[in-house]
Specification:
This protein is an all-alpha fold and 299 residues long. It is 67% helix and 0% strand. The chain is built from 14 helices and no strands. The longest helix has 29 residues. Keywords: Membrane, Transmembrane, Transmembrane helix. This is Zf-HC2 domain-containing protein. It comes from Nocardia colli.
């Protein structure tokens, strides 16, 4: 048992091992017992370092180049070849993706779309005695196409677009599939409305009714979508409205409106050039979904 001396109480082991202040050093100078204990701890530390060096040895950190050189020859470093799915697997994947995107559509879009095309049918029936029935019907159907396609480009009102970053498929493919689902659904409803309108006594037959909206609807929708993706949804809505107004002006026979609409009149029809341009714009919009800048649009 240690006894205190004239230099005060003996130092604890922690004070001997850890850093020493001026008071501890002054105590060691006058206390032989604490000085002997401190030397004992120093000998223990030296012995521990010697044992560690014998058991572990010197730690040498390899350079990054040497590690990389060894990893290149490893079997796991070679890229694994992933088998491409066959035709049946691709079709099943496309069907599953389309089904998933259909479920992710805004809930109000389906009933509003059906109601809108029903209004288009009523409008065509009411104007069946007029020569402008196909034109009015085509403009109404085009407007429905624009509303449907722009609805899938509103990430701020549909936060489920965040799922794009969690899917193992490219965002461009997912967006294209979702857009295709809307376009196919709108086309089916528009064809049904055109058939019913022609059966209920419209002045134009079924092919003429379809030709009045197919090309303009695809072109106006594609133009609005590409502006929504590459700029912002409000810009896409404004661009789509401008194209629709120009198309309405081009559909008029005479007057100042017709002269204004002459800018778009060659494309405001169902032709190969119009459909090709619409397809090109949709491809550009899908490519835009893969840009890092789209995070600004997605919010």
């Amino acid at each position: 048992m240690s006894t205190p001396n004239s230099f005060g109480p003996h130092l604890s082991d922690d004070q001997l091992v850890d850093g020493r202040d001026d008071a501890a050093r002054a105590h060691l100078n006058g206390c032989a017992q604490c000085r002997a204990r401190a030397e004992g701890w120093q000998n223990v530390a030296v012995a521990a370092r010697q044992v560690s060096a014998e058991l572990v040895g010197a730690i040498r950190t390899p350079s990054f180049d040497s590690l990389l050189g060894d990893a290149v020859g490893m079997p796991w470093a070679a890229p694994a070849e992933v088998a491409r799915p066959g035709r049946r697997g691709s079709l099943l994947l496309a069907a599953a993706l389309a089904r998933t995107q259909a479920r992710l559509l805004p809930r109000a879009l389906v009933p509003l779309t059906v109601l809108g095309f029903a209004c288009c049918l009523v409008l065509a029936v009411l104007a069946k005695q007029s020569d402008t029935a196909p034109t009015v019907f085509g403009l109404a159907v085009t407007l429905m196409f624009q509303l449907g396609t722009l609805a899938v480009c509103l990430p701020r009102t549909d936060p489920r677009l965040e799922l794009f970053s969690t899917l193992p498929i490219a965002p461009a493919v997912v967006f294209a599939c979702r857009l295709l689902v809307v376009l196919v659904a709108d086309t089916v409803l528009a064809l049904l409305a055109s058939m019913l309108a022609s059966e209920l006594g419209a002045t134009a037959d079924f092919p003429a009714m379809v030709a009045g909206w197919l090309g303009p609807a695809m072109l106006a929708s594609a133009f609005g979508v590409v502006c929504a993706v590459w700029r912002s949804p409000p810009v896409g809505a404004i661009a789509g409205a401008v194209v629709w107004l120009l198309g309405a002006a081009a559909s008029s026979d005479t007057g100042p409106a017709h002269r204004i609409g002459a800018l778009i009149e060659p494309l405001w029809s169902t032709s190969a050039a119009t459909l090709a341009l619409a397809a090109l714009l949709l491809v550009i919009a899908a490519i835009g979904m893969s840009r890092p800048r789209y995070s600004v649009v997605a919010g």
